[in-house]
Amino acid sequence: MTESDIQGTPGSALSGSQPDLSVTGRTQHHRLRDQGRTDRADLRAVLSAGFIAHLGVIVDGAPMVVPTSYGFDEDHLYLHGSVASRSLQTEPAAQACVTITLVDGLVLARSVFEHAVNYRSAMIYGVPRLVTDPDEKLRGLRSLSEHLAPGQWDYARQPSRKELAATSLLALALDEASVKIRTGPPDDADSPDAALGLWAGELPLISVWGQPLPDPALPPGIAVPPHITTQAGTPVFES
Ligand SMILES: Cc1cc2nc3c(=O)[nH]c(=O)nc-3n(C[C@H](O)[C@H](O)[C@H](O)COP(=O)(O)OP(=O)(O)OC[C@H]3O[C@@H](n4cnc5c(N)ncnc54)[C@H](O)[C@@H]3O)c2cc1C
Predict the structure, then answer these.
(1) What was the pLDDT predicted at 9?
(2) What are the residues whose beta carbons fall under 8 Å from the beta carbon of 105, sequence distance 6 or more?
(3) How far apart are the CA of 117 and the centre of ligand 1, in A?
(4) How far is it, in rounded angstroms, from Cα 29 to Cα 23?
């Protein structure tokens, strides 16, 4: 893609007063357009609700798509890993695409053709930046930790200088992104297949955090911290 493919002006933040998601040559929805969203608040909602991303990069001339956790702030998505990770060592100016996917259920139709998935997903495009500023690096790593397990960053030991040096943090601007959301029943209620007398509907998928399992190596007397106990039984993915 060339710069001239990019139409529209990218926004720079996720707050309510920000412009809609820009439509570029890459983020323009073509198929299933009714599921496309351009409200920046929908991007924030998908980022908040999910916690696993897939980072797509070209490594040694071939695509590599890596599942990874993420954090985010108003302007950036943060991805981290070992300095040895090949997926985090993108060439300067190399494009990446990150997707976040939440599966909310199966959509079971009268015909096999009309089966679908209820989902929320986001795709973010750009050139990841290696974060070298120490303050931003700590902020980004904290956002990652807090997004996965709120309260754990302050509870656990903070990273040492050596650990920080062994960790790469990439920042991807939330400027060029697309969101798609599907909800509701199958689309064939008003088709001839409705006369087949077959059951059709939705099978929701609900993931819930289980009870914490203490490390068998724990000495007696160390209680599960409240920020972990309160997670148990709650939905993994915000609705
Ligand atoms: C869990 C899950 C399962 C799915 N299963 C299927 C399936 O089995 N078959 C199928 O055809 N489709 C499926 N989809 C939808 C699929 O992701 C695409 O949206 C759809 O296939 C259209 O693809 P396209 O390349 O023609 O999109 P286009 O409309 O050509 O894509 C144009 C641009 O729209 C944006 N875009 C496209 N899809 C998405 C998305 N999902 N999220 C955010 N932005 C997007 C991207 O920026 C993309 O560059 C599934 C989606 C999810 C999340």
Answers:
(1) 34
(2) 117, 118, 202, 203, 204, 205
(3) 11
(4) 9
For residue 177, which atom of ligand 1 is closest to its CA? 47
**Minimum CA distance residue for ligand 1 atom 47:** 27
- Binding site membership of 157 for ligand 1 (Cβ less than 6 Å): no
* Every domain of the chain and the residues it spans: 3-105+117-184
* CATH level 2 (architecture), domain 3-105+117-184: Roll (2.30)
Contact 111, 158 (CB under 8 A): no
Consecutive 10-residue averages of pLDDT for the chain (239 residues): 34 53 87 87 96 94 94 96 80 88 98 98 96 96 96 96 95 96 97 97 97 97 96 89
Report CA(68)–ligand 1 centroid distance (Å): 20
Does residue 29's CB lie within 6 angstroms of at least one atom of ligand 1? Answer: yes
pTM across the whole model: 0.90
